[in-house]
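Priority: medium. Attachment 1 of 2:
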């Protein structure tokens, strides 16, 4: 009887010790802070697109109805490793999306001083934090 009791105690102690070595994993724990940040900036009108590695999140809010050339879009990119916004912009009648795991492509159709619409296209690399105008 004592052998069984000792064996039972060893199993319980071992199980408790093992659970302390392996903390619970919350795969979407960063979504809570990203969603709160997005809601604070854009209200309920936003959506999140993670890159292929899920290290960076593109958070967008469309500000008007679709026209023949696109939406007005506010966006920012959130770095889940450093918990910070690394770039933020407003695109007039434009769009933005991931083109690979490290780079977004953004299109902005803004008006120049003579009210003529000009198309501005750029790439932004989230690793190097550099913008390249095309």
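Attachment 2 of 2:
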């Amino acid at each position: 009887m004592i052998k069984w009791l000792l064996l039972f105690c060893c199993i319980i102690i071992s199980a408790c010790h093992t659970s302390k070595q392996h903390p619970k994993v919350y795969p979407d724990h960063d979504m809570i802070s990203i969603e709160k940040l997005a809601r604070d900036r854009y209200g309920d009108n936003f959506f999140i697109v993670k890159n292929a590695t899920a290290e960076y999140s593109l958070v967008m809010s469309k500000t008007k109805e679709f026209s023949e050339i696109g939406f007005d879009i506010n966006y920012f990119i959130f770095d889940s490793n450093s918990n910070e916004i690394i770039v933020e912009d407003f695109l007039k009648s434009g769009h933005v999306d991931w083109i690979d795991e490290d780079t977004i492509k953004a299109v902005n159709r803004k008006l120049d001083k003579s009210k003529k619409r000009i198309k501005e296209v750029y790439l932004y690399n989230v690793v190097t934090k550099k913008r390249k105008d095309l």
